[in-house]
Amino acid sequence: MKPNKSTAVATWMLEHLTFGSGNEALSGDLLEELHLGRSATWYWRQVCSAIAAGVWSRLRDYALPLVFCAGWISLYPGWRYLSNAELAHRMPQDWTALSWPWSALLPLGHGLVPALTFVWLGFLVYVLARPKILNEVSAPSLLWGLSTSLNVLLVSTMLLLRHFRQSRVDLRSLMREDFYSAFHLLWLSVPLALSLLAALSSTVARAPRLMRRQRLSRMRFMGRVQRSVQSDPIG
Amino acid sequence: MREHTYLGEFELMILLTILHLGDEVYGVPLSRELSRLRGADVPIGSVYAALDRLELKGLIASTLGESTPERGGRAKRYFRVTAQGLRSVRETRKVLSRLWKSLPAVREDLV
User: Fold this and answer.
1) From B69, which residue of chain A is nearest by alpha-carbon distance?
2) Which of A35, A98, B7, B36 could anchor a disulfide with A102, C-beta 3.0 to 4.6 Å?
């Protein structure tokens, strides 16, 4: 069968919706089979199967960090309870009487420090529990992961506060024991989960296995460029 | 301690098929041969997913080849088994042979 509009759509989907590194070769193989007499139905089935295989392959890389994040965040109420008991006697009794910017920074720090230390602790537990990652990832990558988690936590918390402004949740809400609680306001634990996931994924993305995959993709891209230069009649 | 690369059933079949077909093997003949040997259609996408895994493990290597009009100008990707891949196949065969030999005689129907 010759390629038609339907198979052209399928080819486009294959080349844009799959994460694998050999998309060009794969679509070439499928087109060759189509040319040799396979049906459009067979072609579509192969394309859908290839997309599903690509998505599954990518999900497997992030499945463990996702499961770990969900499990770790569920421990936060306990951590908050412990850290609050520790921090309570260190806080000034009347912090609102302090001058700006301390009046604003104090609740911010009081709310964020336990959250951030919790996220960083989770990050370290994950990395230490997997010595293979620890051996493969450099110190700057680990620092990059910690820094990313801080940024994500700050930005997502600010966005949440902005979102809650209408329901009278302000900066002082950060001081509440249950601000990041998974029980009281379940979805406020989203910044924590995002922050931890950002730290893990930015570090895992620098692990050699994925770097090698990126290197293979680059190598194939350079191969294509080289071939196109060689086949250029002007050159 | 030496680190082993354990092969899944499908990965082992792919490695053996590449060895069987020789150097000039790319996706189409590979998936056709696999389908013939298994007696069922093997999705080419699954073959490529396994090939990517094997390449990341260093058991196979690939190079881009020529493109033809029937492929819409897309290059072929040729695969070959690396020395590490060969070692892994031999190791797996040894382990499987030992396992088969260790089966009790009364279970001959399994062999």
Assistant:
1) A32
2) A98
SS3 A227: helix
Residues written for chain B: 111
Nearest to A224 among B43, B52, B64 (CB): B64
What is the value of pTM for the model shown?
0.64
Q: How far apart are the first and last CA of chain B?
A: 33
List chain B domain ranges.
Answer: 9-103
| Cα gap B94→B6, rounded to integer Å | 12
Rounded Cα gap, residues A103 and A105, in angstroms: 6
Structure token digits, residue B47: 């073959």
Range list of H helices, chain B: 9-21, 27-38, 44-56, 83-101
Cβ-nearest to A50 among B48, B55, B74: B48
Per CATH, the number for B9-103 is: 1.10.10.10
Among the partner residues B44, B67, B72, nearest to A26 by beta-carbon distance: B44
Per domain, the residue ranges of chain A are 1-61, 74-215
pLDDT in tens, A145-164: 888 888 898 888 878 777 76
How many angstroms away from the CA of A213 is the closest CA of chain B? 7
Residue A223: in which H helix or E strand, if any?
helix A208-230
User: Does the ipTM exceed 0.90?
Assistant: no
Report residue A226's pLDDT band, with 50, 70 and 90 as the boundaries: low
CA distance A164 to A68: 28
